[in-house]
Amino acid sequence: MSISLLESLLKALEFSPDNFELRVQIVKIYMTNLNFDEAEKHLIQVLDNSPKNEYKYLLAKCYFKQSKFNLTEVILEELVEKSNNVDYLELYCYCLIEQKNLAEALPIYQSILDIDKFYTNEDFESFFKVSTVNTESDFIDNDAVTFLKKPTINFENVGGMEEVKEEIDLKIIKPLLHKDLYKAYGKKIGGGILLYGPPGCGKTHIARATAGEINANFINVGINDILDMWLGNSEKNLHEIFQTARKNKPCVIFIDEIDALGANRNDINKTAGRTVINQFLSELDGIDSNNDGILILGATNAPWYIDPAFRRPGRFDRIIFIAPPDEKARESIFQIQLQEKPVENINLKNLAKKSKEFSGADIKSSIDIAIEQKLVESFKDGIPKPLSTKDIVKAISKMKPSTKEWFGSAKNYALYSNDSGLYDDILTYLKIKK
Q1: Is residue 404 one of the residues assigned to a domain?
Q2: For 159, 236, 318, 345, which has the most beta carbons within 10 A of its beta carbon?
Q3: Mean pLDDT of 380-402
Q4: Helix, strand, coil % in the chain, rounded to nearest 5
Q5: CATH of residue 210
């Protein structure tokens, strides 16, 4: 279709703006010419008056071509609920793949094959074949409790936390870039860093980003992955995790809620609990443990419960306080969280000021609350309504910072159980002079 035809149709539309069939033809020409932005504008006008599935599908394609995958998914979720149209399912599958949501994408592909036995798609066949093989090979063995992953985020995806990034950069990133220089000074590459602070302030997020920054393997370990009711199995699970990391260097091991695993041995009555802690200490710096090239990141909300032996040099010798994000960081978090979401006239500075003392999780929750309200409005016609600053501020006003309760407890430890100055960062944050 030529440009001259498009110009003719646009002129005709000026005299007949309510001619939606004409507007749809213009949309198709724009899409053929890869001008998806203009196609989107016309489609929204069409859907305001004629919310047909075929028009919604065209809008979903426009969003997809502009990499607005969240918007694409919102529309397609509704369409595939109402219809088994292969075109809808195919685009939905592509959308999920782009968002790296393979767990949902594979069943969609399988449903397409169930509907159309002659359906072929080289992209899907090649992708899911590779994905399946990789997923199976990622497991340690049949008794494994964890698996390796390659994070898709790095420090650019972390709002604020500049001091934390610098600390990790010095501890793990620079050593990997300048191995010979560090070895000349007798410095090992790797080690342990303990992250502590209020829940929801980005301890897990910064751990994933660290692995992504150096393109390292990442092992995310929960307490349930290690602790076992049978005697000796917990120690075995812990050993297997470290052995897997040693075979796949560089590697980041992230252990969440590490206080449950490394509790003070003086507070533990059962021998089984002590043997797990001893095994952990042995894995960190035992005679047979070669952890060069491995970074162990531990996260806790209660560092005062951890056995002091874990803080000796060569183990978790760096302890970093992860404070709630400051105003600049909150602005950055809002910007990251609102990416690919339908927004209009967003004042990030205003949102950052209104969300004082909010954690990163609180910020995400405020956006979710605002989205829920917009979804109620969008259910009427199936078209996503854009979020505004007013919507999010309203959601913020309904919340209280989740960090306040944590600081209530942490302040007591920082004031009265802080002989070594370990928790001075808490007092600095609270602006308390000891």
Answers
A1: no
A2: 159
A3: 88
A4: 60, 10, 30
A5: 3.40.50.300
